[in-house]
């Protein structure tokens, strides 16, 4: 597929999806949503890819939904049923990211607000530059988070803080985002790419099957009782024991060496 609003790059084990509308601070247009879905589908079907990085070109990560009617016809819909249907289209991306059995890292260089904040929240790990900022700014325009924020944010920062951020529409800097657990790490802007790559490489060198299963178990656990969650763990462990990577880990332990995982 030829992309216009995103760039998809692949190297050994790592796929990087770059939001590529820097002149619009990477605001999400309808086309960008569709191309992000296509890019996630691509990496999901590529067995050589073990980890995904999402980043923004220019000075922003993503400034939310595009407010240009030509780029975002969602804004001109008046029928509530059509609006609901359009929301479901947007939600496909968030669901695909969560269901992808490969870890996704958000590499946040600047503003991540509105749908851009939700996009970062839908990733599994967030690395931020000290120039980054985050905000569920929907309240400022009389709306509610439409791409998962009300579900994702409380699971990262707790109910009270999520209520504060969503109901006020306040924007916080990277230091505060780290303090409340919204991001995993904050680095100087000139170190962001290197820090992200180091983490991505570490994940890519891991046991891919086990990593994918662990991601699924973590996210599923929020909606399950303990007994059901443990039963899913039992099934996942049974699958791990069928992999070459686990057998390699046992051999490496016995031979006192570092295991070399092949994602099999």
- Reported CATH architecture of the largest domain: Alpha-Beta Complex
Quickly name the level 1 CATH class of the largest domain: Alpha Beta
Radius of gyration: 19 Å
Q: Could you give the count of β-strands?
A: 9
Shape, per Cα inertia axes: globular
What is the rounded distance between the termini?
A: 28 Å
**What proportion of the residues form beta strands (DSSP E)?**
15-25%
Low-confidence stretches: none
Structure description:
- The protein is α/β, with parallel strands linked by helices and 264 residues long.
- The protein has two domains: 6-204, 2-enoyl-CoA Hydratase, Chain A, domain 1, CATH 3.90.226; 208-254, Orthogonal Bundle (Lyase 2-enoyl-coa Hydratase, Chain  A, domain 2), CATH 1.10.12.
- The chain has helices at residues 30-44, 80-99, 115-122, 149-157, 159-168, 174-179, 192-204, 208-220, 226-240, 244-254; strands spanning 6-11, 14-19, 51-56, 104-108, 111-113, 125-129, 133-135, 171-173, 185-187.
- A six-stranded mixed sheet has the order 1-2-3-4-6-9, with helices on both faces.
- Helix 3 (115-122) crosses helix 4 (149-157) and helix 4 (149-157) packs across helix 5 (159-168).
